[in-house]
Amino acid sequence: MTGKCFGRINEVFVITMTFAFIVSGILIFSTSVYLSSASTVYKVFEESSKAVGVYTVLANRLVHHGLSSGLFLILSGLCGILGLCLNNRLLLISFSAYAGFVIALVIAVIVFVELYPFEVTNAQLMRMEEHLRTSYLKDEQVKQVADLAQQNFKCCGVNGTGDYLYSYFYNKTGYIVPQSCCRKYNLTGWNETQYEHCRMGVESFLVKNSTSTELFYSHGCYENILLSLKTVKTAAIITLAVVLILELSLILAIIYLIRNDPNFKDDSYDVEESSPDYFVGRRKQLQSSIPEKTASEESEKMSLNSPSSHSVTNYDTFRETPSI
């Protein structure tokens, strides 16, 4: 009873993991297709990476790897479903091989995430600052990327508000910081006058005893993004570890299913076939299948093989030979 219950639970687990392959593959593939299309966010990120020179091909690699990984997961899941529906041993073994490949890939990603330094060199950092000073407001795409980062990560500039001092933005507008660096104190946000004071970098406005750090974000985006990346890194390692455990469990479940479920028994080989009794019984079976010879066939064979028949034949041959 316990074995039957465990077998059903094991089969349900394999089915669930098979559908999880397909669903995750569809999500990854569709997300990659969306990013590779005419997406403003993707184009801005790609152009910004090219301009700054940091992680130049990151966006393309993410999209291409996402497309291939999503397609691989979908095909693997379909292989598992066909193996379960058709009770096909070979398809299930192939599905477990795909799961093994995923395990190897997960281990590689964990090692990469753990060892890869998610930091930029001082030269790259200086280049980012210089690009922000010279291109913000002049290049609309750079402005979109900077505003998006400053609003989402609650930061200002690459290393702080000083990045905008004597920049192209400062020379054109006379403002200390752009509007995306300003804090919002309520759900409705600030009005234009309040934003004007913020952009001018006044030390206090509306809030009693407030300072400039309360009016706009003083921390640089590089520091905040780095902290966010470390948080994402930890979450990614934990998620990948869980995926690794699930994939190992899936392979063991498939092995148990193939070995114990009679629907997946391989008829091409049986352990009993290797025993001597099997071969003896098989030989008797083959002998019994051979038709017995009739009595006339046996007598004819005996007459042909008898010595008298040979002598008569030789005598007749000698008699027919003409004399000289």
UniProtKB/TrEMBL annotation:
Task: List the residue ranges of the region (Disordered).
Answer: 274-324
Q: Where in the cell is it found?
A: Membrane
Q: Which SUPFAM superfamilies match?
A: Tetraspanin
Polar residues: which segments have biased composition? 302-324
Q: Principal place where this protein is found?
A: membrane
Keyword Transmembrane part of the UniProt annotation: yes
Q: Which Pfam families match?
A: Tetraspanin
Tell me what topology the record assigns in the membrane: Multi-pass membrane protein
Asked if Chloroplast is a keyword of the record, the answer is no
Q: Which UniProt keywords apply?
A: Membrane, Transmembrane, Transmembrane helix
Q: Which GO terms describe its cellular component?
A: membrane
Q: Where are the transmembrane segments?
A: 12-35, 67-86, 98-118, 235-258
PANTHER family associated with the record: TETRASPANIN, TETRASPANIN TSPA-RELATED
Protein name, per record: DgyrCDS13903
Species of origin = Dimorphilus gyrociliatus
